[in-house]
Amino acid sequence: MSLNIGRQAVPALRRCGSLLAFPIVLATCYVFAQPSLSALQAQLVARFGAARSALLDDWGRVLAQARNAGEEGKLALVNDFFNKNILFEEDISTWQQADYWATPLETIGQGKGDCEDFAIAKYFSLRMAGIPISKMRLVYVKAQLTGGGEFVQRAHMVLAYYSRPQADPLILDNLQKAIQPASKRRDLQPVFSFNSEGIFAGVSGAEPPSAGKLGRLSRWENLLQRARAEGFD
């Protein structure tokens, strides 16, 4: 299914074009723990002021609700929360950097983020809601869009959920409200995927992480380290 959007949505993919520079590499494994919401609230106020405190409280309530839902219910709650409450903005405007991967706390604190930030925030949130890491992948894709009569192909990031290893994954995307199977998203061409267990050469849920001395995906490593410092580990 093709994705047709107006010109206003195209910058969301232009910004993510920097992902093309990342190699397919091996990442360190991390175990996620449940951070204290009160501790996160204190950090948020110290760094960003009190304006986003209500949004962090809302996030906590969504997580509490998601923990009692089935897996697809968890996906819907988390996907809707971030797509409705976080504005798309390029990193150069938000962080004064060409490319910055934000933690969920930072995305909520800013109230905005780019495609990587949406996918990362959903990944962490679903892990906190009880979805195993093995069922989720952050997926780098090339997205085909038409807007204003123009055809564009842009780098983009989405979150994929696998109900079982051989399943057609469900795609959580900041550009589309509906969660759809990957087979229905013909506008997305997957390149590689990763999670806290490692980097995967493709997007099959049955394949193991890549092995060997392939270097590091530095922004993902850095993001995980900062998330640990905030209490996510």
Summarize the helix and strand pattern as letters. Answer: EHHHHEHHEHEEEEEEH
Range of strand content: 15-25%
Low-pLDDT sequence parts: 1-15, 17-32
What is the SS-derived class? Answer: alpha+beta
Round the Cα radius of gyration to an integer and report it. Answer: 17 Å
Helix content: 25-40%
Q: How large is the count of helical segments?
A: 8
Distance between the termini: 38 Å
Q: Averaged pLDDT, please?
A: 84
Number of strands: 9
Q: How would you sum up the global shape?
A: globular
Largest sheet: 7 strands, mixed
Provide a brief overview of the structure.
Helices cover 37% and strands 22% of the residues. The chain is of the alpha+beta class. Strand 4 and strand 5 form a beta hairpin.
Structure write-up:
- Helices cover 37% and strands 22% of the residues.
- The strands form 2 sheets. Strands 1, 4, 5, 6, 7, 8 and 9 form a 7-stranded mixed beta sheet that branches. It has a two-stranded parallel sheet with strand order 2-3.
- It is built from 8 helices and 9 strands.
- It has helices at 11-15, 37-48, 53-67, 71-85, 91-94, 104-110, 115-128, 218-232, and strands at 3-4, 87-88, 112-113, 136-147, 150-161, 170-173, 176-181, 188-195, 198-200.
- It is α+β, with helices and mostly antiparallel strands and 233 residues long.
- The longest helix is centred in the N-terminal third of the chain and has 15 residues, at 53-67.
- Helix 3 (53-67) runs antiparallel to helix 4 (71-85).
- The chain is globular, with a radius of gyration of 17 Å.
